[in-house]
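Bug #77: duplicate submission created two jobs. Keeping one. Sequence:
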Amino acid sequence: MVIGSVAATPADAASSAAARPTIAPATASPETTSGYRLFGLTPTGSSVNQWQGNQSWTGVGGASLSIVDGPVGLISIAPTSQNVFLYTGNSWTQIGGAASQVVEDAYGGVYSISASGQSVNQYTGSGATQNWIQIGGASAELADGPSGLFSIAPGSGNVFRYTSSTGWTQIGSAASQIIEDNAGDVYSISASGQSVNQWTQEEGWSQVGGASSSIVAGSAGLISIAPGSNNVFRYTSSGGWTQIGGAASQVVEDNDGHVYSISASGLSVNEWTGSGQSWTQIGGAASQLAAF
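Kept job's structure:
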């Protein structure tokens, strides 16, 4: 089974002041399949698998370009067509046409960048419906959470924030990556890759770290992969930066504060024990992880 992505040309009219609805999954959540909300792609992207605990994984879907997990369910962009599919624990349902990125927020909002990169779209449907509305123009990357929807503009790398009440507002200059945690704190990597920065509505931007190639944020704190070494570092406002692991190609966090990684070689999936630099292998080769 091939799994999928988001509408490149929404059927509904564009609206810069669209509401941010809470969307209920059509059927049971993926955690009915197992108690864990950790999913992984095989190295070739040929199948999607769900972690069952220990080193046990179960296949839940076919080929995928990328996956993201959230309260609505697991969402996948299909190879070739780039159509968007939703998995809710029982089956896959197409919910949109071609997209290059999909994000979910903690409230059930789902947003996408069209496959052409020329529009930002919001999912307004449920279940098998494919209702989307355009809420923005060209974007290179999205991040979403309690503080709003954030977009990096192509070319300039400038950062824009969207809310249903204010529309789009520029809040920052050139960035190469942007993320948001469930508390509404926003982090970015500068366009040069030489600094990690934090944005809050009250204080604006402040630098919190040096060079980084990738960041994630969640209950366990802000986590960065260092350029060159690929070592994993964790940041908390009280403790600053601490190395918690060796070379990794990807790190993800779930809502319970668990931290997972793919080794730099891509040959193992590992879980941080929460202590020092101690990790436990929970799986073999993988190309991408998604957790909620």
